[in-house]
Design brief:
Length: 113
Amino acid sequence: EVQLQACGGGVVPPGGSLRLSCAASGFGFRDTTMTWMRQAPGKEPEWVASISNLGRSKWYADSVKGRFTISRDNAENTLYLDMNSLKLDDTAVYYCQRDDNLRGQGTLVTVSS
């Protein structure tokens, strides 16, 4: 069974940091480009960042460039998103997604003062 389980969300003040993780199982994780997406309340899903299968290439949305870092550990089948300098607009459910758009259960990040 294919599973993608994100965790690590929480409530942080503006300027704070969080590290999200996504544990993958049931498929060839090391062979797949992976993506972080987010969806804020009442809004459409938004692409955040992607990383190639071996981690050599990374791509970021302009809204998070310079603040967020995507990484992966293929030995542990885990995808990460390090988020720094968080803003109120970063509040959303964050979820990881496979290259065929299969996505897992998300984790809520709330940036609030």
